[in-house]
Design the sequence.
C-alpha cells in the first residue's frame, strides 16, 4: 500500500475557535480501497478535521491535496460535487419528508421538467435494498426508528457517485444486527475502490473493519498506524496519553449500599405500569444508593420505561411509590420535585438547548424547579456553572460559550451537570456514553459509581452490555416492549444477558 | 491635554459601540440615527423641542408619541416571537379592545343648559379593566389553541385575526361609536408634566417587562422554549404554560393599544382600528434583531424598531418630493434595505465581493 498515492492528503492543518485551539497542525492521509479510522478522545479534533475536509469549516492553515491537486472546499456542496460524501453523527435529514424524498432531495430526477416520482421511489427502494433495508419509502422519515433513519442517511450519500465516504459515528444508534449489515455494505464499497473514513468510539468495530488508524490527541497528530500492527491497549494508551494501568483500575461497583431491608430503603417502586403501544405491564424497584441497569436492544422498551417513570409519557395504568409513598407523576416537573432526574438518549433534540450558554444550560433544571420568580442571582449561577465545569472536566473556553460549540461528550457532561445541580435522589441515564470516547466513558462510569456511593440511586440504560454489567448491581432485561427478567449477583454476565435477550432463558 | 481627552472620549465611544454590538442593538441604533439625521438635514428645526402651553412639542416628541402603538404591540410580540411563534391577531384585538371600551363608556352627548355633561354608560375604570381583561383572555385563547391543541401559531392567530374584526363590529353594532366623555381622552391624548401620557404608559410597560427579563427566570425560560421546546419540557419547565402566558401578554398589550386608539380617535371603528398594526409590530421586532426562528430576544431592540418605523413614516410624509401614492413603496424599499444590511450573511457576501474586486485590481 505504501506505493499508492493517497486520494486525500492533509498536512499541518490548523484550526482555532474562540478560546480553543481545536487543531494545531495535524496530518492525515486517506487511500482508495481502504477503511480508515480516526481515533481520539472528545475534543481531540476528529469532528473538526472532518468538517474542514468537507468544507464546513475553513482551515486557518495547512494544505489539503485531493486527487493529486491542491484544493480547499468552501462549502459542503462543493466537496460533495467533487466526490466527498459525509454522513454525520447526528442524522441530518428532514423528518417531515418521505424516505424517498430525503434520499433524492436537491437532485430529483426529472421527466419533461417534472419530478419523476416513480423513479425516485423505485430508486430509493433499490438503494435501501443494497443496505438490506426494505421499507415503504413513501412514508414519512419520522415514522421510522433512528436506526432506519441512519440507513437512509447512508443511502442518500451512497447514490451520489462518491470517491470518499466519511462516516461520523454511523453505528452509535444501530444494534448489532444493523451494524453487521452496515459493515457488509462498507466492505463492498471498499472493494469497489472507495476510500472510507470511519469515526467511531467502538474499539471492537475499529478492529473488525478498518485497515488503518490515525490517532489524535488534544488537537495534535499522534501517529498513523496499520490496524493490524497496533494492539488495542496501545491504541488506548496513545489516545489517552497516560499509562493504561491507571485506567484499568476500574471503578468498583458499590454493592455495600444495597441492604437486605428492601422496604426501608426503597426509593422508587413501580407496580403494574403499562402504556398501550409503548410498554407492556411492568414492575420494578430501585433502592437507595443502587445502580439498576437496563439492558436490551434498541426499541426493546428501555427508553419507554424511563419516559413513563419520568412523567414524559402518561401511563394507562400503574402505581408509582416514591420512598414508600404513593405519588402521581404526570409531568417531568412533578418527577423533578420528587427528586428524579432524566438524561435523555437523544441529547440534541431532547437534552441541550443549543443556542444557550453552558451556564444557562446547567442551571436550567434547577431554575425550573425554583420557578420563575426565584431567579438565581447571576453570581450564584456563575458559581454553580464553574463548579460543575471543574468537577466534570467540561472542556469549554468559559461558561458563556454557546453549548452547541462544545463537542458531543462535553455536551453530555453539561447535561449531567444540569441534573446534578438539582441534587436528585434518582438519576436516570439513557445511553450516557453513546457517541463519546473511551476516556470520557470511563469518567462517566466512574462518576456513576462515586455518586451512588454517596447515596444517589441511578438507572443506567446502555446498549453496551459490558458497561451495564460493570456499573450495575442489578440489571433489568427488556425485549419487545416488555421487561422480561431481572438479573443480579452471579447471573450478571454478558452471556447470560444475551441469552435472556435472545429468549433462551 | 486635548489629545488625551479626545482619546478618552474615543475610548468611551468604542466601548459603548462594542457593548451595543454585543447586545444586538448596534444596527437598529445606527438606522434610527441615520433616519433622524436625514430628517435633520431636510428640516433644520427637526431636533428642536419647545414648550407650548406647558407641553413639550417638537418632531421628536411627536414621533415618540405616535410610535407608542407599535412599540407596545412589539413588546408583546417580542416574547411571542422568542418562543418561535407569531401573533397576527393583535390588530383585531386592538379593534375589539377599542370597541369594548367605547361601548362601555357610551356614545351619548348630553348637553344641559348649553354645557356638556360628562356622562358615561359605565364608570371609566370598569370600561378600562373590562377591555384589558377581554383582550388578555383573547390572547389566552390563542395560547390555548397553540400550546394545548397544537395548532400552528400563524393559523391559530389567523382565526382570531379574521373573527376579531367581526366581533368588534358586532360590539359596535356595525357603527362607529363616537365618545364624548372627556376624561377618557386623557389616556391617548393627554399630557402629564408636559409629556404625552402614552409615553408614560409605554415606559411603565417597558419597565415591568425589563424587570421580568432581568430579575426573573422568565427570559431564560422563554428563550429555552423558543430554541428547544422538548428539551425544555424534559428539564422540568412547563413549556405549554409559558407559551400560553406569552400570548396572553401579547393580547394584554393589544388591549392597551386599543384603549389608546379609542381615546385618541375619540371613537371606535371596528373596521379600521388597529388595521395592519400586527405587521408593523412584527416588523419592529425583526428590525430590533429578534429572529423569527425564536430564541434570543431583544426588548430594547423592538422598541428601537418601533421608533424606526414611525420615524420612517414621518420622514416620508415630510419629504415633499415623494408623492403620497408612492409612500408605501418607498417605505417598503427602505425596510428591505435595512433588513438586508442587518443580515450577517448578506454583509459577509458583500464584503466578500468587495474584497475579491480589490484582489483582482491588484
Sequence:
Amino acid at each position: 500500500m505504501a506505493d499508492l498515492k493517497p486520494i486525500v492528503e492533509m498536512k499541518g492543518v490548523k484550526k482555532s475557535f474562540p478560546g480553543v485551539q481545536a487543531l494545531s497542525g495535524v496530518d492525515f492521509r486517506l487511500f482508495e480501497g481502504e477503511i480508515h479510522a480516526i481515533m481520539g478522545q472528545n475534543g481531540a479534533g476528529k469532528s473538526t478535521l472532518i468538517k474542514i475536509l468537507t468544507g464546513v469549516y475553513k482551515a486557518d492553515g495547512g494544505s489539503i491535496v485531493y486527487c493529486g491537486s491542491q484544493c480547499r472546499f468552501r462549502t459542503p456542496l462543493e466537496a460533495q460535487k467533487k466526490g466527498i460524501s459525509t454522513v454525520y453523527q447526528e442524522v441530518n435529514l428532514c423528518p417531515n419528508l418521505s424516505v424517498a424524498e430525503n434520499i433524492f432531495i436537491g437532485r430529483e430526477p426529472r421527466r419533461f421538467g417534472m419530478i419523476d416520482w416513480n423513479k425516485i421511489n423505485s430508486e430509493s427502494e433499490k438503494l435501501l435494498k443494497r443496505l438490506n433495508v426494505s421499507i415503504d419509502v413513501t412514508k414519512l422519515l419520522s415514522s421510522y426508528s433512528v436506526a432506519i433513519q441512519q440507513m437512509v442517511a447512508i443511502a442518500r450519500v451512497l447514490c451520489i457517485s462518491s470517491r470518499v465516504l466519511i462516516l461520523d459515528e454511523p453505528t452509535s444508534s444501530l444494534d448489532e444486527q444493523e451494524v453487521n449489515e452496515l459493515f457488509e455494505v462498507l466492505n463492498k464499497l471498499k472493494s469497489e475502490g472507495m476510500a472510507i473514513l470511519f469515526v467511531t468510539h467502538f474499539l471492537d468495530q475499529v478492529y473488525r473493519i478498518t485497515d488503518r488508524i490515525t490517532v489524535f490527541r488534544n488537537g495534535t497528530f499522534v501517529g498513523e498506524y496499520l490496524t493490524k500492527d497496533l494492539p488495542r491497549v496501545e491504541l488506548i494508551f496513545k489516545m489517552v496519553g497516560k499509562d493504561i494501568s491507571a485506567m484499568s483500575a476500574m471503578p468498583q461497583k458499590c454493592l455495600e449500599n444495597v441492604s437486605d431491608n428492601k422496604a426501608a430503603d426503597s426509593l422508587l417502586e413501580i407496580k403494574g405500569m403499562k402504556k398501550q403501544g409503548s410498554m407492556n405491564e411492568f414492575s420494578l424497584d430501585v433502592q437507595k444508593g443502587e445502580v439498576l441497569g437496563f439492558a436490551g436492544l434498541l426499541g426493546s422498551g428501555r427508553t419507554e420505561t424511563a419516559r413513563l417513570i419520568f412523567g414524559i409519557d402518561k401511563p394507562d395504568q400503574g402505581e408509582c411509590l416514591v420512598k414508600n409513598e404513593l405519588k402521581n407523576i404526570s409531568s417531568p416537573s412533578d418527577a423533578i420535585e420528587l427528586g428524579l432526574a432524566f438524561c435523555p438518549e437523544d441529547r440534541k433534540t431532547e437534552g441541550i438547548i443549543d443556542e444557550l450558554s453552558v451556564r444557562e444550560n446547567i442551571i436550567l433544571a434547577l431554575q425550573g424547579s425554583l420557578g420563575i420568580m426565584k431567579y438565581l442571582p447571576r453570581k450564584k449561577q456563575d458559581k454553580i456553572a464553574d463548579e460543575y465545569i471543574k468537577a466534570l472536566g467540561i472542556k469549554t473556553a468559559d461558561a458563556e460559550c454557546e453549548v452547541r460549540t462544545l463537542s458531543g461528550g462535553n455536551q453530555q457532561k453539561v447535561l449531567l451537570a444540569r441534573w446534578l445541580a438539582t441534587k436528585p435522589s434518582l438519576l436516570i441515564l439513557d445511553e450516557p456514553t453513546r457517541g463519546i470516547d473511551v476516556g470520557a466513558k470511563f469518567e462517566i462510569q466512574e462518576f456513576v459509581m462515586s455518586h451512588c456511593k454517596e447515596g444517589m440511586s441511578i438507572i443506567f440504560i446502555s446498549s453496551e452490555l459490558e458497561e451495564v454489567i460493570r456499573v450495575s448491581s442489578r440489571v433489568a432485561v427488556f425485549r419487545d416492549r416488555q421487561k422480561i427478567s431481572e438479573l443480579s449477583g452471579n447471573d450478571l454476565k454478558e452471556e447470560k444477558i444475551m441469552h435472556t435477550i435472545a429468549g433462551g432463558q | 491635554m486635548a489629545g488625551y481627552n479626545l482619546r478618552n472620549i474615543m475610548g468611551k465611544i468604542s466601548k459603548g459601540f462594542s457593548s451595543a454590538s454585543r447586545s444586538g442593538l448596534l444596527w437598529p441604533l445606527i438606522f434610527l440615527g441615520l433616519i433622524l439625521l436625514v430628517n435633520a438635514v431636510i428640516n433644520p428645526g427637526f431636533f428642536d423641542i419647545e414648550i407650548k402651553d406647558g407641553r413639550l412639542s417638537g418632531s421628536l416628541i411627536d414621533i415618540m408619541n405616535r410610535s407608542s402603538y407599535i412599540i407596545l404591540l412589539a413588546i408583546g410580540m417580542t416574547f411571542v416571537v422568542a418562543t418561535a411563534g407569531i401573533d397576527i391577531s393583535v390588530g383585531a384585538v386592538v379593534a375589539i379592545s377599542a370597541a369594548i371600551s367605547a361601548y362601555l363608556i357610551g356614545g351619548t352627548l348630553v348637553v344641559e343648559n348649553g354645557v356638556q355633561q360628562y356622562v358615561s354608560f359605565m364608570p371609566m375604570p370598569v370600561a378600562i379593566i373590562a377591555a384589558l381583561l377581554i383582550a388578555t383572555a383573547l390572547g389566552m385563547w390563542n395560547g390555548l389553541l397553540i400550546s394545548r391543541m397544537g395548532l400552528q401559531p400563524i393559523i391559530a392567530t389567523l382565526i382570531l385575526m379574521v373573527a376579531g374584526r367581526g366581533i368588534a363590529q358586532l360590539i359596535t353594532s356595525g357603527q362607529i361609536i363616537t365618545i364624548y366623555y372627556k376624561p377618557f381622552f386623557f389616556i391617548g391624548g393627554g399630557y402629564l408634566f408636559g409629556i404625552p401620557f402614552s409615553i408614560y404608559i409605554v415606559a411603565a410597560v417597558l419597565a415591568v417587562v425589563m424587570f421580568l427579563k432581568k430579575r426573573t427566570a422568565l427570559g431564560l425560560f422563554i428563550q429555552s422554549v423558543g430554541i428547544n421546546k422538548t428539551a425544555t419540557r424534559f428539564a422540568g419547565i412547563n413549556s405549554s404554560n409559558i407559551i400560553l402566558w406569552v400570548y396572553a401578554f401579547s393580547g394584554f398589550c393589544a388591549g392597551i393599544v386599543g384603549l389608546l386608539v379609542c381615546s385618541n380617535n375619540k371613537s371606535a371603528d371596528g373596521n379600521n382600528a388597529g388595521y395592519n398594526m400586527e405587521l408593523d409590530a412584527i416588523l419592529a421586532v425583526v428590525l430590533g434583531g429578534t429572529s423569527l426562528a425564536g430564541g434570543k430576544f431583544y426588548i430594547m431592540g423592538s422598541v428601537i424598531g418601533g421608533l424606526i418605523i414611525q420615524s420612517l413614516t414621518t420622514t416620508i410624509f415630510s419629504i415633499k418630493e415623494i408623492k403620497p401614492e408612492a409612500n408605501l413603496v418607498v417605505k417598503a424599499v427602505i425596510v428591505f434595505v435595512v433588513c438586508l444590511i442587518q443580515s450577517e450573511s448578506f454583509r459577509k457576501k458583500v464584503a466578500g465581493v468587495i474584497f475579491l474586486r480589490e484582489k483582482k485590481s491588484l
